[in-house]
Specification:
Number of strands: 14
Distance between the termini: 61 Å
Number of helices: 1
Helix content: under 10%
Radius of gyration: 33 Å
Strand order of the largest sheet: 4-5-6-9-10-12-13-14
Shape: rod-shaped
Length: 286
């Protein structure tokens, strides 16, 4: 009787371990064994076996019952849809993000006057952020605060200046040598993003960022008659807010590549030239 009770408890344990949501189902009898001599329950990975060896009336009796849990094939990429859980054992996760998405990129101006040329940008998209991962563990949403600079280079023999509150570019003095000009814009970033894990630590991120252009200044340096001259222009009338949109793909814990589109000009029409940019580069973290 003791062995029989142990068998029944074992069978109930195996059935409950792999059962789904409770439903009202008619029970199916797998086996009815009276007075088993020996009951062995083994588990190997996703497979569980119940083995009975002999009964009081049939010492040579043998019975084997196995259950295999269905799982996704290991090693293959998985992709989850937003808000959908892949397992009822995953729970939402909330986390604070510190110093994530440090970037350096090449900026290509478009719909922009000829003097502007290929430039650079650098910064940190998330000095501090908040990330929420719904049940399922592969898709997450985040919001952060960061800062960065965009340095726009200007072709040689052009100098910066302001005329009637409007930023403008004019020819450098005749005979000037080593003419270098650039426009620098300091920005605070507020990104909102969707991040998707594809396989292990590899995934992609789509983000929309609001940039607060807190300061802008321009500078020209050149040599004339063996004297070095420097022109600095501050107090430019840049737009306070400009959006950009980014797609990045790579390793969450290492490097990723990104493409960023900034469709709104840095200056309003009456305060400076149209400057829209398309950039690409590398970032640390995703």
């Amino acid at each position: 009787m003791r062995h029989f009770s142990f068998f029944i408890i074992s069978m109930l344990f195996v059935a409950s371990a792999f059962a789904g949501e409770p439903e009202e189902l008619d029970p199916d009898t797998v086996a009815n064994i009276e007075s088993p001599l020996k009951v062995i329950v083994t588990e190997n990975g996703q497979k569980t076996e119940v083995k009975v060896e002999g009964t009081s009336s049939q010492p040579d009796y043998r019975f084997l019952y196995s259950i295999t849990k269905e799982t996704e094939e290991k090693g293959l990429p998985t992709l989850s849809t937003p808000f959908m859980s892949r397992s009822h054992r995953h729970y939402p996760r909330r986390e604070t993000v510190v110093c994530n998405d440090m970037y350096f990129g090449i900026v290509t101006p478009y719909d922009t006057p000829e003097p502007f040329r290929t430039s650079i940008e650098y910064g940190v998209r998330e000095f501090l952020g908040y990330r929420y991962t719904p049940g399922g563990g592969t898709a997450s949403f985040g919001l952060g605060v960061g800062a960065g600079n965009m340095k726009l280079f200007i072709r040689r023999h052009k100098k910066v200046g302001v005329e009637n509150d409007m930023f403008e570019l004019t020819d450098a003095p005749e005979g000037a040598r080593n003419v270098h000009s650039h426009l620098m814009i300091w920005r605070l970033h507020v990104p909102f993003y969707y991040r998707q894990r594809i396989h292990r630590s590899f995934g992609f991120k789509i983000s929309a960022t609001m940039n607060f252009n807190v300061a802008a200044k321009a500078k020209t340096s050149y040599s004339l008659d063996d004297e070095k001259h420097t022109l600095k222009v501050k107090g430019l009338h840049q737009r306070l807010l400009t959006p950009d949109f980014t797609f990045a793909i790579g390793d969450f814990d290492a490097f990723s590549v990104y493409v960023r589109w900034s469709p709104v000009s840095v200056f309003k029409h009456r305060f400076g030239p149209e400057i829209k940019t398309l950039s690409f580069g590398l970032s640390m973290g995703l």
